[in-house]
Amino acid sequence: xxxxxxxxxxxxxxxxxxxxxxxxxxxxxxxxxxxxxxxxxxxxxxxxxxxxxxxxxxxxxxxxxxxxxxxxxxxxxxxxxxxxxxxxxxxxxxxxxxxxxxxxxxxxxxxxxxxxxxxxxxxxxxxxxxxxxxxxxxxxxxxxxxxxxxxxxxxxxxxxxxxxxxxxxxxx
Length: 172
Fold this sequence. Notes:
By secondary structure, the protein is α+β, with helices and mostly antiparallel strands. The chain has helices spanning 19-29, 58-70, 102-111, 132-142; strands at 6-14, 34-41, 47-55, 74-80, 85-96, 115-119, 123-130, 147-152, 156-159. The protein is built from 4 helices and 9 strands. Strands 5, 6, 7, 8 and 9 form a 5-stranded antiparallel sheet that branches. The radius of gyration is 19 Å and the shape is elongated.
């Protein structure tokens, strides 16, 4: 994703306490904002993958990559090309859903291939995954019903094809 000077950066790090703090501290010390951040263990539990979205021109992107590579726990840094990568996000949305509105909400949920994951007498909680524009479109359609709560996971991404960001440089 590279819209409005946004860059998706994938960082392979050692899975140790304090690594995320050091990475985010690097951004705050230099005045760079992180638009989105997601972190999780890789197939090898010794490593975690950080996917972050940051804004800036090519010079700022280059500085971010250089500074990340200086951190001792960082194994690899890669800026993902939007044309050759898959980007996804997860959102959980709690929507006001009185009896009369449930059918129309359920219809929209089905169209977006989302899932209703919780039901109460006055609300529905919906899980939706997809790219940012899909999630934004769904949220816009739910606003008239009333959104009680909303949480988004942050972007997660992988390069398409055989290329793999892993600790041993081999393409799997």
